[in-house]
Structures are given as structure tokens and as C-alpha cells.
Design goal:
about 250 residues, mainly alpha, three-stranded antiparallel beta sheet, elongated
């Protein structure tokens, strides 16, 4: 009796190359030990559940490390990565072994990866009786390299989310896109507004004292006597004779 292995349909795993890369980066770069352990556990669980080839944690980490460095190399060649960035520090390690100087040489490396991937095809019927062709393989690592290649072919940009609390890799067809989604964009705006408001110091503007004004601009002091008895017309008339003239009394 022949046991047929379950195959992985590529289109069932949207952006798995970014999901796995972000998990590996967290497991490698996070300053929190709990976050590192949680990311490593999630990464291994995904492979143990879905993958038919990679099972060893060390092998999984090694494969993803190569994938992440290739992604960062693409970003660096396109000007979307700074070596001073937190994620950029991964790129500077083993610089000679992983850094390609041109996109052509990097594409040649990716093509070597693609040439070793075994693909199978299968016709499948949908609920509406339409028939589609599905492409499948036996490793999530293979799916990740295929998706990365599709991203390059579709002229997508892989960037780092600029929200301070996120910093995840994401892909977009817009070169000027700075955030992985609208939630991060809103949170980043609120974060900037909060910190700018907390750092701003109120400035109190004071008028110069009268005695410090130039003599030419000084006005003579106003002379008036406050009556001892309440007068509702006090201050309305300049002099008593004006009051009598206007009111007729």
C-alpha cells in the first residue's frame, strides 16, 4: 500500500513569506525574551502543522534566515533599507556571504532556489462547478520562495512599517507606502501627536512694561475720580457737562 503525502497548495497561503520572515526577525531581534520564545514557537508550529519536509527547529531557522537576508538584500538594492534600522542590522551580519551587489546577481541566486522546487499541478472543481488549475508543492519554504519571486515579478515593494511599535515587513505596489495597514497609520499619527504635545512647552508672551516703552510712544496717564456713590453712568461720559448736555439734566 502506497502512502500519498499531503501536498501544499500555494494559493492557500497568502503572503506566507512575509509572515514567516516577520516571525524569524522577532525571534532573532526582539529585546524581549518572551517575544522571542513566542515567535519561535509560532514559527515551528506552522511548519510542524503544514510542512512535509522541514521539521527540525534548527533547519527551519536556517532556511528562514536565508530567506530574510534575501528579502533585505532586495530592499537594500531598491533603497528601502538602512543599515542603521533595527531590521537592517540583520543585513550587516555576514555581509560578504549574503549581500549581492546587483539585482541581476540576486535574481540568479533566487532562480537557483526556484530550480530545486518540485511542483505538481491538479485540476479542481469549485462549488459553482468551474474548474481551476492548482499548483502544489511539499514545503512551506518552497512556497515562500515562489511568493517572493511573484512579488518581484509583480513589481511590488517590500518595506518596513514605519510605526514605531510595529516595524514589520510588508509588500505594496505603492513605492511611497509607509505603513503595513490603515491601523498602523492611525496609531503612528496618534503616537506622534501625543509625543509632540507632551514635549511642547507653553510659551507665555508678555507685554513690555509701560516704563520701558520709548518716550515718543507713551500716552499720558488717564485721570479720573471714582465716585463714592454708585453711578450707573460712570465712565460713559468724559465730563459732567457732557452728561448734562446729552441727558438734558
Amino acid at each position: 500500500m502506497t502512502i500519498t503525502k499531503k501536498q501544499i497548495f500555494i494559493k492557500d497561503y497568502k503572503n506566507i513569506f512575509l509572515t514567516l520572515s516577520n516571525l524569524w526577525i522577532t525571534s532573532d531581534q526582539s529585546t524581549s525574551q518572551n517575544q522571542k520564545e513566542r515567535a519561535t514557537e509560532q514559527m515551528i508550529n506552522i511548519f510542524n502543522k503544514e510542512d512535509l519536509v522541514l521539521k527540525s527547529p534548527l533547519e527551519i531557522s536556517t532556511k528562514l534566515r536565508e530567506l530574510v537576508k534575501t528579502i533585505l538584500n532586495i530592499m537594500e538594492l531598491r533603497g528601502h533599507l538602512k543599515e542603521s534600522d533595527r531590521i537592517g542590522k540583520i543585513f550587516t551580519r555576514d555581509k560578504e556571504a549574503y549581500k549581492y551587489k546587483s539585482m541581476d546577481s540576486l535574481i540568479d541566486f533566487i532562480n537557483q532556489k526556484l530550480s530545486s522546487i518540485i511542483l505538481n499541478h491538479e485540476l479542481s472543481k469549485l462549488n459553482n462547478q468551474d474548474t481551476i488549475m492548482k499548483t502544489k508543492t511539499n514545503s512551506l519554504d518552497s512556497v515562500a520562495w515562489i511568493q517572493l519571486s511573484d512579488s518581484l515579478a509583480n513589481k511590488e515593494f517590500i518595506k518596513i512599517c514605519q510605526h514605531t511599535k510595529c516595524n514589520k515587513l510588508f509588500s505594496s505596489k505603492r513605492a511611497k507606502m509607509s505603513y503595513c495597514d490603515s491601523k498602523c497609520q492611525t496609531r503612528a499619527k496618534s503616537y506622534r501627536a501625543y509625543h509632540l504635545h507632551s514635549q511642547a512647552k507653553p510659551t507665555v508672551s508678555r507685554l513690555p512694561a509701560l516704563e520701558n516703552l520709548p518716550n515718543s510712544d507713551k500716552l499720558p496717564p488717564e485721570r479720573y475720580v471714582i465716585p463714592d456713590v454708585y453711578d450707573p453712568d460712570f465712565g460713559f461720559f468724559d465730563q459732567e457737562k457732557d452728561k448734562k448736555r446729552i441727558l438734558g439734566s
